[in-house]
Specification:
The complex is a heterotrimer of chains A (about 400), B (about 170) and C (about 170). Chain A has about 400 residues and is of the alpha+beta class. Helix content of chain A is about 50%, strand content about 15%. In chain A, the strands form three sheets. A four-stranded antiparallel β-sheet of chain A has the order 1-2-3-9. A three-stranded antiparallel β-sheet of chain A has the order 6-7-8. With about 170 residues, chain C is α/β, with parallel strands linked by helices. In chain C, strand 6, helix 5 and strand 7 form a beta-alpha-beta unit. The chains are: A alpha+beta (about 400), B mainly alpha (about 170), C alpha/beta (about 170). At the A-C interface, helix 2, strand 6, strand 7 and strand 8 of A face helix 1, strand 3 and helix 5 of C.
């Protein structure tokens, strides 16, 4: 048999046991993957083109759909770029509320990633536990914003709602519960010999490769690069928070998972600090607050929420462009808006963390066993709709 | 075969007749109800995630909403599944895959379209890369919402079960 | 887990002040006729299309180690496509504070430019996307496949301005 006949092309997906939405085209020699290329675009919904047909405020729900498990961070990235373009800044309390929701989203998004990784490794316990604990943060976010996942909470110049009564106590209970839970996860999943055997030393991403390929988020930090937008280019309330950038040196699948666990712990600490230090004050920028008629202001004070002023509906930013970046749960998200002075963007560019990490499939899944594919896939916390946009 | 060639000349093909009679019998009330009751409580959705509603679908299968209590458990291989959930937007590239997966499922099979995108495009209604599931698949139940809450998924399952038990489901008639 | 001191050092590192980054870019790109401007906290450098690759190599040598985004902007009025590379650094804390937009303009009817894959491998998927979305030809790019659109897609690249989608409202 010639060399080439040994190698088979194996098509995995788009219907496959992992969460789907993408196809992996693997060349296998026996049980060893020789090379693999990801075939993406199964969830390409043309967000960038549609954004050009929508008013600025209508884009908020549009960009929330692709990263559905991590909406608040992307909402924040877009709003920051838009505010930069408009030359406004949200008042302090709104900045803290944004940070609060961003960290809550980070926690439930990381639990989502852990759960999906668990089911890929065949550990339904990890899936069930992670999805249960995720619901706690979702429930609290729902009390704050009114929606389970698609919050549309941050608007240019502020946020839509203030903290509901009794939120601090509920959150305190939830955080104490989550802190108690993490050791349980260690016992049953992270320190489980089966998990260790499947993840340790599998899919090692070296530090220089991570930098060369432009990897972002926990996948980058697991290879020993302490790059976190919250530290490098702090936004909202992050300059005033005391937190560590979680990094690991190993760069393998286990390290990527453990970075996420470490970030859950850091987020728990951050939420405590936020609730303690949050300043009082308005939650919408003064310029827009002035436009609201007095009878609505009473209603707003009573219900602790904003009535959208008409000026926000047809925003006309000046001609120019703005770029903003945030540290979303899966990594750095970059938003780039080019305005021509009309109520719709001239060009709108979203660079989500997943599209920057997709190169890892072809880089990491090479010279490994077919059985390692789900272990590596899961550890990347790759969310296809976010990559395809 | 008992009757051989000469027998089949007079009686027809016994095996075929028996199969016909069995089908006739199964379609009669007591047995049909029993069959439909069985189908209604063994819905196996194929693990086929088309878009972001998959996150809420996963939450529906998770402990808090626990869709398994309705006899509803996602399964990997389309050959052993009888329910397909279109979870959100169906892009052109994914639509081909959806048809392949649907064709591989054994009958009777049912389709639930989840989310506003799967009804008429939702927020992506004017996108150039989407397909409406109702144009390519026989959809039984639509779930509105963007994304629908897990409770809505559970409600759709219950609704589908009712339709099956009443014999109204399109999948039973194909 | 990272030692506390390491991450804090990075957080507190002094970023290059506004004037300094422009001076630095001017020194790095000397002789390539760059137009350096800054607005809203972002720095942009415009170079002629034939100098793009050289500019990229010099920026890489100066410490800009990855590309965050590659964006093509179709401008039918001037018959040009603007190509923007947002570059930054992971390792140099003075540079990572900044996102530098390296930009150039290409003719709209034949947009061809050398791929920067040799300089920054992180551009791979971004360039593939811009190729199918705007019809920009990146010569020397290792992967000729389409990325997001179906292989069978034909017609005007979707992000060109003459590709129209339906809009809602009375003007539709």
């Amino acid at each position: 048999m010639s060399e080439e006949e040994h190698v088979l092309e194996l098509l995995i997906g788009p219907q496959h046991p992992a969460s789907g939405h993408m196809r992996l085209v693997a060349k296998v020699d026996g049980d060893v993957v020789v090379s693999l290329r990801p075939d993406i675009g199964y969830v390409h919904r043309t967000v960038e083109k549609l954004a050009e047909t929508k008013n600025y405020i209508q884009i908020i729900p549009l960009i929330e759909r692709p990263p559905l498990a991590d909406t608040a961070n992307h909402n924040l990235g877009y709003v920051l770029a838009l505010e930069r373009l408009l030359g406004i800044e949200a008042p302090p309390r709104a900045q803290w509320l944004r940070t609060l929701l961003a960290e809550m989203t980070r926690i439930h998004s990381h639990f989502y990633g852990l759960g999906i990784h668990g089911i890929m490794l065949g550990s339904s316990t990890a899936f069930m536990w992670a999805f249960w604990d995720r619901e706690i943060m979702i429930e609290l976010a729902q009390r704050l914003t009114g929606a389970r996942l698609t919050y549309s909470y941050m608007i240019p110049g502020g946020v839509r709602r203030d903290l509901p009564p009794g939120f601090e106590d509920e959150m305190d209970k939830a955080l104490r519960y989550l802190e108690r839970r993490i050791p349980d996860y260690h016992k049953i999943f992270f320190d489980n010999p089966v998990t260790r055997a499947r993840l340790e030393g599998v899919g090692v991403l070296r530090r220089e490769d991570a930098i060369r390929l432009g990897i972002v988020g926990p996948n980058l930090r697991a290879s020993g690069v302490p790059y976190d937008v919250r530290k490098v280019d702090p936004y909202c309330a992050y300059p005033e928070l005391d937190f560590n950038v979680v990094t690991r040196e190993e760069g393998d699948s286990l390290a990527r998972m453990m970075v996420r666990v470490g970030e859950i712990r850091e987020s728990i600490n951050m939420i405590r600090q936020i609730l303690k230090k949050m300043p009082d004050g308005p939650i919408l920028e003064e310029r827009y607050l002035k436009m609201i008629p007095p009878k609505w202001k009473e209603w707003m004070a009573q219900h602790r929420r904003i009535k959208l002023p008409a000026a926000l509906i047809s925003l006309r930013p000046p001609k120019g462009e703005a770029v903003a970046r945030v540290e979303a749960a899966r990594g750095e998200a970059v938003y780039y808006i080019v305005s021509d002075g009309s109520p719709k963007p001239y060009r709108f560019r979203v660079v989500s963390p997943s599209i920057r990490n997709v190169v890892l499939f072809e880089h990491l899944i090479r010279n490994c066993r077919v059985a390692d594919i789900p272990a590596i896939y899961g550890s990347l916390d790759y969310f296809p709709p976010e990559a395809d946009r | 075969m008992v009757c051989g060639i000469s027998g089949s000349m007079w009686l027809g093909d016994l095996e075929r007749t028996a199969r016909k009679a069995a089908r006739w019998l199964v379609e009669r009330t007591p047995i049909r109800s029993l069959r439909d009751w069985g189908i209604a409580f063994s819905l196996w959705p194929v693990h086929f995630t088309t878009a972001c509603c998959g996150a809420e679908f996963a939450a529906a299968s998770a402990p808090r909403f626990d869709a398994e209590r309705f006899g509803f458990l996602p399964f990997v291989a389309p050959r052993q599944c009888n329910l397909m959930l279109i979870e959100g937007t169906l892009t052109k590239k994914m639509a081909d895959a959806a048809i392949w997966v649907y064709e591989q499922m054994p009958e009777p099979k049912f389709v639930i379209a989840m989310g506003a995108c799967a009804i008429d495009g939702g927020i992506f209604w004017n996108s150039y890369n989407i397909v409406r599931p109702k144009d390519i698949l026989p959809v039984e139940v639509f779930i509105p919402g963007c994304p629908p809450r897990p409770e809505a998924v559970a409600r759709a399952v219950i609704k589908l079960q009712k339709r099956i038990r009443r014999g109204e489901a399109i999948g039973l008639k194909v | 887990m990272a030692s506390k001191s390491e991450s804090q050092v990075q957080g507190k590192a002094e970023a290059a002040p506004p004037g300094e980054i422009e001076t630095l870019l001017g020194e790095v790109l000397e002789g390539l006729s760059p137009e350096i401007s800054s607005a809203r906290g972002a720095v942009s450098v415009k170079v002629p299309p034939d100098r793009l690759k050289e500019a990229a190599e010099r920026l890489k040598a100066a410490g800009f180690d990855h590309v965050k985004a590659v964006t093509g902007i179709d401008r039918p009025d001037s018959g040009e496509i603007e190509l923007v590379y947002h570059v930054s650094s992971y390792l140099d804390p003075r540079l990572s504070k900044w996102i530098v937009a390296l930009r150039t303009t290409l003719p709209r009817d034949n947009p061809e430019t050398p791929s920067l894959y040799d300089v920054w491998p992180s551009v791979k998927y971004h360039e593939m996307e811009q190729r199918e979305m705007l019809g920009i030809h990146f010569s020397g790019h290792p992967d000729p496949r389409s990325l997001l659109l179906p292989e069978s897609y034909e017609g005007v690249p979707p992000l060109r301005k003459d590709f129209k989608v339906k809009v809602e409202g009375i003007n539709a």
